[in-house]
């Protein structure tokens, strides 16, 4: 079975980071190992959350894995809480990122033009430095503009503007860039991916939901990581991940008393494995992620 390591916080309540990455990746038939960067009582959109930083534990954990000769098919990073943690990920990539390990960096830092609580412009630049080491990066428009040090443009941009942004992001060093939350009208929301080697740009638009929710970026990146390690191509992987996010939002909105802090990904999770297997089989790839 393919094995990935995901590095991000555990927000005990909040349906984001590790509490979505673990179930989503496991559901796709991929072993999900974790390196928790911090324990929070909730995600940071709640008031008064507790925060225990685990930075000082991370090196010893990674050292143990080195001694045990544990290998990963992918390293997937999400929400990181400090400059020191970014430095530690650079080391993790050096130690575990050899021989075909896919590196997926979700530079999870903000949305709707603002950084999440506790992040700064300098942190965004350090995150851009981590993106240089990735094969695939998954920013939204907010994270993209902070990492590039350019003003955030909320709407009214052109296709050319987005394509230029993709190239600038690839210029940070990642081979592949997936930009989320692109929209040219009120009806559609899109994902656009760029492969800097083939220079191929692929657009995928789905219906725009009436509301956005916390944690959907983490769900997107988790599905993406799972199917990429199982061998699906980037554009197909984006489509599957985006469709799963839309289904999760629809499931959420179908409840009269849905909660504000996260989406109902649990309902569509039951069919994720099937959708994943089907996409994989239709491309002639093995039905399970077991090597043999
Ligand atoms: O979903 C992204 C995320 C992850 N982790 C923490 C967060 C957020 C977004 O607010 O606060 C702790």
Would you give an account of this structure?
The protein is built from nine helices and eleven strands. It is globular, with a radius of gyration of 18 Å. The chain is α/β, with parallel strands linked by helices. 40% of the residues lie in helices and 22% in strands. Helix 2 runs parallel beside helix 3 and helix 3 runs parallel beside helix 4. Helix 3 links the parallel strand 4 and strand 5. It has one domain: UDP-N-acetylmuramoyl-L-alanine:D-glutamate ligase (3-Layer(aba) Sandwich), CATH 3.40.1190.20. It has a nine-stranded mixed sheet, with helices on both faces. It has a two-stranded antiparallel ribbon with strand order 6-7. The chain binds 3-hydroxy-5-(hydroxymethyl)-2-methylisonicotinaldehyde. 3-hydroxy-5-(hydroxymethyl)-2-methylisonicotinaldehyde binds next to strand 1 and helix 7.
Structural class: alpha/beta
The span between the termini is 9 Å
Level-1 CATH class name: Alpha Beta
Number of domains: 1
Strand order within the widest sheet? 3-2-1-4-5-8-9-10-11
Q: Under the CATH scheme, which architecture would be assigned?
A: 3-Layer(aba) Sandwich
Helix content range: 40-55%
Shape: globular
Residues in β-strands, percent: 15-25%
What is the CATH superfamily? Ribokinase
Structure annotation, total helices: 9
Sheet of most strands: 9 strands, mixed
Uncertain segments are none
């Amino acid at each position: 079975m393919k094995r990935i390591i995901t590095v991000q916080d555990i927000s005990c309540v909040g349906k984001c980071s590790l509490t979505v990455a673990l179930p989503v990746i496991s559901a796709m038939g991929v072993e999900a190992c974790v390196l928790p960067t911090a324990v929070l009582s909730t995600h940071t959109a709640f008031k008064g959350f507790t925060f225990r930083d685990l930075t000082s534990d991370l090196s010893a954990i990674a050292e143990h894995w080195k001694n045990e000769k544990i290998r990963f098919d992918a390293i997937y990073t999400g929400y990181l809480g400090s400059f020191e943690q970014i430095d530690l990920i650079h080391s993790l990539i050096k130690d575990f990122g050899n021989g075909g390990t896919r590196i997926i960096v979700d530079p999870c830092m903000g949305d709707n033009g603002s950084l999440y609580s506790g992040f700064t412009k300098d942190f965004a630049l350090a995150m851009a430095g981590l993106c240089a080491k990735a094969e695939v990066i998954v920013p939204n428009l907010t994270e993209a503009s902070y990492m590039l040090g350019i003003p955030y443009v909320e709407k009214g941009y052109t296709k050319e503007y987005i394509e230029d942004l993709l190239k600038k992001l690839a210029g940070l060093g990642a081979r592949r860039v997936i930009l989320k939350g692109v929209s040219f009208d009120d009806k559609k929301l899109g994902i656009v991916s760029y492969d800097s080697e083939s220079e191929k740009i692929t657009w995928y638009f789905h219906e725009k939901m009436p509301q956005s929710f916390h944690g959907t970026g983490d769900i997107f990146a988790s599905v993406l990581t799972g199917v990429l390690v199982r061998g699906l191509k980037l554009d197909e992987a984006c489509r599957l991940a985006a469709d799963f996010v839309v289904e999760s939002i629809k499931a959420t909105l179908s409840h009269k008393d849905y909660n504000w802090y996260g989406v109902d990904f649990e309902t569509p999770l039951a069919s994720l494995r099937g959708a994943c297997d089907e996409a994989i089989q239709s491309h002639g790839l093995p039905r399970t992620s077991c090597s043999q």
